[in-house]
Design brief:
The chain is α+β, with helices and mostly antiparallel strands. It is built from 8 helices and 15 strands. It is 31% helix and 23% strand.
């Protein structure tokens, strides 16, 4: 395949689908450049003084890593001057981030988890960045948190970067899913996979099995059937993976199928699962559906949810369509 850059891809996409207005193209290029900067910082590890705790907590009450804060700052600084955004929101910030008065505002709103998989930073396991793009409501003066609370079906773009053996950027603007690999020598994103499709069948699942005693019956039933393998009702053996970086598990699923689950469980009914709707579940659900997969809360389509809070959590079942539909059916039968 002739290798083309992210810029050329976006220009040609705009020419053929007219689906990427100039401001959205600028937004995507700026976020991609910020991910390049984050990849560079991540790659330094201990040599860059970026490992370890920042000795501060985020709105989730989680101890922040230095790279959580650094990645958040990189994305804020990269995006605030371009004139393409009305405001930003991040896992690492309690309230939305207004565009400084000295810069013009644009028609898009950017949400992100700047560094997903923080528990893996200090042990050199793949981590990533997740982002979601919404349109600002018409006639909005000063953005408020309520302006961000739009269902995932309203997203105009979504993507993630994985900082792993390769640094990749996976992107959708509603016309399928494409993957770009960072050419470190040239410093450019190069198109390496087009129109990615998730196999509808799979024999691989991802869940944090240490929580098994807390799972509700539909998940207990579904997982025990996978564990029963060939001798059980599924009639085939399954394999398990759990990286504890959603972006890395999702990238594997996008490439070879699988089902990723972070269910609600009995530990804390006020916290329905661990993943956040606005900047983790929604962008990943958009990508997964665009790649022919499915993404539900166990009972309903993630992208149909009407958000009520910026940092709300949601149970997540996503990946190979047939498996997601089966585990969702078990919830609906319960
Ligand atoms: P952190 O970014 O706080 O490490 O959370 C990562 C994550 O949101 C998601 O990327 C992982 O799949 C999941 O949490 C891992 O959760 P466990 O630590 O409970 O396995």
């Amino acid at each position: 395949m002739k290798r083309i850059s992210l810029t050329q891809y976006l220009v040609e996409e705009q020419r053929s689908h007219d689906s990427i207005p100039a401001e959205l193209r600028l937004l995507i290029e700026v976020v991609a450049r910020a991910c390049k900067t984050i990849s560079h910082a991540v790659g330094k590890g201990a040599l860059g003084e970026v490992l370890g705790s920042a000795h501060s907590e985020n709105v989730q009450g989680e101890v922040q890593k230095k790279l959580d804060i650094l990645s958040n700052e990189i994305l804020l600084e990269a995006n605030e001057w371009g004139g393409h955004l009305a405001a930003m929101a991040s896992e690492e910030m309690e309230t939305i981030h207004q565009i400084p008065h000295r810069y013009p505002k644009g028609e898009y709103m950017l949400l992100f988890d700047p560094l997903d998989g923080s528990s893996n930073i200090d042990v050199n396991v793949s981590i990533g960045t997740i982002f979601s793009v919404l349109k600002a409501p018409d006639g909005m003066a000063t953005p408020t948190e309520a302006d961000f609370l739009q269902p995932g079906s309203k997203q105009v773009a979504a993507g993630y970067a994985v900082y792993g053996p390769q640094t990749v950027l996976v992107l959708t603007t509603g016309n399928g899913v494409n993957c770009f690999t960072l050419d470190r020598e040239m410093g450019s994103w190069v198109l390496t996979q087009q129109q990615m499709q998730i196999p509808t069948e799979t024999a691989e699942y991802a869940i944090n099995a240490s929580n098994a005693r807390h799972w509700y019956p539909p998940v207990q039933r579904y997982i025990s059937e996978l564990e029963a393998g060939k001798t059980g009702p599924r009639g085939k053996d399954f394999n398990m993976r759990w990286i504890a970086s959603m972006v890395a598990d999702v990238h594997r699923i996008l490439n070879r199928g699988g089902v990723f689950m972070y269910p609600a469980d009995a530990r804390d009914p006020s916290k329905p699962g661990r993943l956040r709707l606005m900047y983790e579940a929604n962008p990943i659900a958009f990508i997964v559906e665009q790649a022919g997969g499915a993404a539900t809360t166990g009972t309903e389509r993630i992208m149909d949810l009407q958000p009520t809070q910026l940092h709300q959590r949601v149970p997540v079942f996503l990946g190979s369509k047939n498996e997601v539909e089966l585990v969702t059916r078990y919830h609906q039968q319960a």
